[in-house]
């Protein structure tokens, strides 16, 4: 666990936020040695934080024991250099259990994902996340997506809740996000963090920057950290020429490829990590592997991205 408050460490990140995949061996079991190597490479490449066992890390497919082993491994590999945020999800009781496991493993914070299956009203969602925040000493980031979509009024209440420090958007409704940012700014004096959490967040980075949201999760960092770093630098220095060249030549085609298969937001990323020389195994069911042709297209896209980097230097 790092010493400074999580909100402080995340507010001005030195690089992209890293969401490592979870490595499996040939027998399908978690391969902690490969996972450690993946996390270590990401930190050494310039990640500002490690979000362990979240969406890209197949939180849904891990047992509680595997989850804790992976979070502990991430904490050990980062060695305090960057904060480690662990996923937490399902119903309130299980989310609290995962929070306790993450605390024991030494994590710095939690990314609270949507509750399992049910579509709850605002009152129930608020109760769920406030009870989770009360039950843990870890600072919490609430993840909006799928069956957990919030009104501005509910986010104001979340922002007033002790222990909840941020809000990650995986919906992509900029009108809603602008109203949320405005409402919280008007009602809550303390700093509150916002994150662009769309599957390939770089594609919408310029739009989110327009409403003041510059923190984002980067799945591309898992397999092409040099591209993710170049885009991150361009976005945060106002170099829109470079950002747009990377968007047009790499990120837009990547998103179009990702749209070719369900679950590709995870399985295509994992294929990318394997293409770059680290065998992290396949995804677990119910996700499935990309087709051979799609993996070939991904390899060509990575080559194109590398060529773009040479052009923009």
UniProtKB/TrEMBL annotation:
It comes from the Bacteria. Its EC number is 4.2.1.41. Pathway: Carbohydrate acid metabolism; D-glucarate degradation; 2,5-dioxopentanoate from D-glucarate: step 2/2. It catalyses: 5-dehydro-4-deoxy-D-glucarate + H(+) = 2,5-dioxopentanoate + CO2 + H2O. Pfam families: DHDPS (PF00701). InterPro entries: Aldolase_TIM, DapA-like, Dehydro-deoxyglucarate_dehyd. CDD domains: KDGDH (cd00951). Keywords: Lyase. Belongs to the DapA family. This is Probable 5-dehydro-4-deoxyglucarate dehydratase. It comes from Streptomyces ureilyticus.
């Amino acid at each position: 666990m790092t010493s400074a408050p999580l909100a402080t460490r995340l507010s001005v990140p030195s690089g992209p936020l890293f969401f490592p995949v979870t490595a499996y061996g040939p027998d399908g079991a978690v391969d902690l040695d490969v996972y450690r190597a993946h996390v270590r490479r990401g930190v050494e490449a310039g990640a500002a934080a490690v979000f362990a066992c979240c969406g890209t890390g197949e939180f849904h497919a891990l047992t509680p024991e595997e989850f804790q082993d992976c979070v502990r491994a991430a904490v050990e590999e980062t060695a305090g250099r960057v904060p480690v945020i662990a996923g937490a999800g399902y119903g309130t009781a299980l989310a609290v259990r995962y929070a306790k496991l993450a605390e024991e493993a030494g994590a710095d914070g939690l990314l609270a994902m949507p509750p399992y299956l049910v579509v709850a009203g605002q009152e129930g969602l608020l109760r769920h996340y406030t009870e989770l925040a009360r039950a843990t000493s870890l600072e919490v980031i609430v993840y909006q997506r799928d069956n957990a979509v919030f009104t501005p009024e509910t986010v104001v209440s979340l922002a007033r809740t002790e222990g909840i420090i941020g809000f990650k958007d995986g919906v992509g409704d900029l009108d809603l996000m602008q109203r949320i940012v405005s409402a919280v700014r008007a009602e809550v004096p303390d700093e509150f963090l916002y994150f662009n959490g769309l599957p390939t967040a770089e594609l919408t980075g310029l739009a989110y920057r327009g409403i003041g949201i510059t923190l984002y999760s980067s799945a591309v960092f898992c397999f092409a950290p040099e591209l993710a770093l170049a885009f991150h630098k361009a976005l945060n220095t106002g170099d829109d020429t470079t950002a747009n060249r990377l968007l047009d030549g790499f990120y837009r085609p990547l998103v179009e490829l990702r749209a070719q298969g369900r679950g590709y937001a995870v399985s295509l990323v994992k294929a990318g990590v394997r293409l770059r020389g680290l065998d992290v195994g396949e995804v677990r069911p119910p996700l499935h592997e990309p087709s051979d042709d799609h993996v070939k297209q991904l390899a060509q896209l990575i080559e194109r991205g590398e060529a773009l980097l040479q052009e923009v230097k």
